[in-house]
Every structure is written in structure tokens, then in C-alpha cells.
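To: structure desk
From: M.T.
Subject: fold request, one chain
Message: Could you run this one when you get a chance? Sequence is below, nothing fancy, just the single chain.
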Amino acid sequence: MSREVLSPPVQAMSQNRRYRVNIVHEDFGGDKWNGQNKGSKRQNQAYEEPDLYGEDDDEDDPAASNIEESPNGDFKLALHVPKSFYGGLIGLKGSTKRRIEEETRTEIYVPRQNEKSNDVVIRGKQRSQLCAALRQIRHLITSLRKKMKPTHFLAVAMNSGEVQKRFVELKKSILEAQLPGIDEELFMPERSIHLTLGVYVLLDDDERQRALKELEACRPLLADLKTPFEMKVKGLEIMNDDPSFTRILYGRVESPELQKFADQCLSHFQGTGLCATDNNERESIKLHMTLMNNRYRKEAMKSGNSFDAREILKRFGDFDFGAAQCQAVHLCVLKSRGEDEFYKISGSLQF
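Reply: Done. C-alpha cells follow.
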């Protein structure tokens, strides 16, 4: 089945102008399917204390290979760190940076927000001291990233062909039924319907390019799978247990081969440190095509945080959207769609 996917230009990400960490995000695509968020500690207590001079293999960190020895015998490491982490790295009145320096016997320079450089510079008398500081900074960044809202997601576009056509038909039928509390604002725009395979926190161009390289690194996973992936979309389901208080209604997706790839891709990205909290906490991707979401309403707060889907499920619960083929997955910018276009695409894995 032929499909066309819009490929608009990449959206530029704005830089954080203050030293702060974003709040833990609401779940992208609905309620969590695995586990719950746990309360976060203060920034300077938000991660486990690493073993400073233990047997950890610091050479596994690619940054360790960039440690330079100066003519006077000192060591230096320029480490790329997105500016959004500077506040957490510095800490209240410099407390976090000062503690790491004291514990690892290093000096750490964090660029000011208006500087062009994104390199945190670590200096010390011994290579092992720099490795210890590097390890602490990595632990801290991992912890801080868990508190940040996702910026990108991995998507399979469903915005063409039979599935899109049937979505438009279902939307028309539901609206014509004039069900209480159901209006057009609840529906996903037809040019934006998709499946979500992962959500990530990518804070600058360096991290976006790294994510694309990691996506390309998933290509070998396709070797034992039959591509393009065949997908069937049939039946309506909700994210919660009570259809009278529904936040999200979605189409059920059946695609064994895509499911295998999605889960393997999830596992791969969990090892990169780029995943949003929700992806770090799950073992499998729930394939679903969001159709209605209460958060799409401009007046969501005035209309309540749910809608009644009982009559929709009763009348259209077995709705068949037909079949589609997945020939690519796209790294998309979250919250970047317009009314008549797909999400902005940073890059794709074509197959």
C-alpha cells in the first residue's frame, strides 16, 4: 500500500535561559502502563552516590578517551553538557559543583548561559580524578534528565491511505451522533495520526544528532524481521478502566513484527541515557493509535479532565480501520504539529 509521509523541516529547540530543571512530564500518549512516578528528591540529592575510585570501567565512557595530558603533567577533559543541565550541575549557590570538586579533587568550569561553548571543563592532577568526576557528572545528568519533559518521540505515521480515510469516517459518525460532551476538539487531526514507539529528552543539536545515530544503530534489528511491517488497526480501547471518565481513546494495533522491533528499539535506547522517564520504566511498547485525547481541548480545564466514551465504545467498539504498511520510523519534535501537517521530523530510519 503506497503511503506518503510529510517531512517538514526540523524545529529549532530553544535554549533554557535560567538555571533550572523542568518538572517531571505528564505521560505522553496517556496514562502509564507500567508503574508510577515516584517522588523526586532535591537536585543535589537526586541520584545515588557513585563509587568514586572503584573498579568501574571508565574507559567504557567515550568521553574518557578525550582526556588530555598537558606539558606540566596535569589532565584536562572538555565534556559536552547541554545548557539545560548547568543549573543542576552547579547546585544551590554552587554546592553541587563544589562537592564534586572536593570529592574528586578536581576543578570544574561550567560555562555561563550566554557563552557559545557547551563544554564543561574538568581539570585535575591525575587521570583517575577526572574519571571519578566524569562518573559523578554522568550520574547527576541521568538523574536530572528523568525529571525533564520529553522533547521528541519515535513515530510511525498513519496519516495516509485506508487508515486515515477510515479515521475520518469514524470521526464524522461520532460527531453526527451528537453524544453529550463529545466535540471535534477531542480528536487527533487526521494529518497527525501515528503510533508512538518511544519518547526522549533531547536538549540540544548534539543530542538530537546522537539520537539519530542511535536510531540508525537499530537497523541491524530489522535483519530477522519481515519488512515493511504489516499493521492492522481494528477496535477501540481506552487507557483507563472507567469508560465514563476517559482521557484517551485509541485504535488497537496488531503487528507482531513491528512489536518485536519496537521492544528491541526501546531496549537499545534505554542504554543511551536519552529516554524520558516513562520509557526507562517500561519493558514493552504498547502499540496504539490515539484517536481522541482530552488534552487536545483548548478549554480542557473548563470541560473537566475526561469525557464519557461509553456510547462510543458501544456503537463503534469493533470499528475496522483496515491495514497499512510501516516503511519507516521517524524521530519527531513533540508538540510541533500544525492543524494541517504532520509533526516536524528530525530524521528517519527507512526500510
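Reply (cont.): The CA atoms of residues 111 and 318 lie 57 Å apart. Let me know if you need anything else for the meeting.
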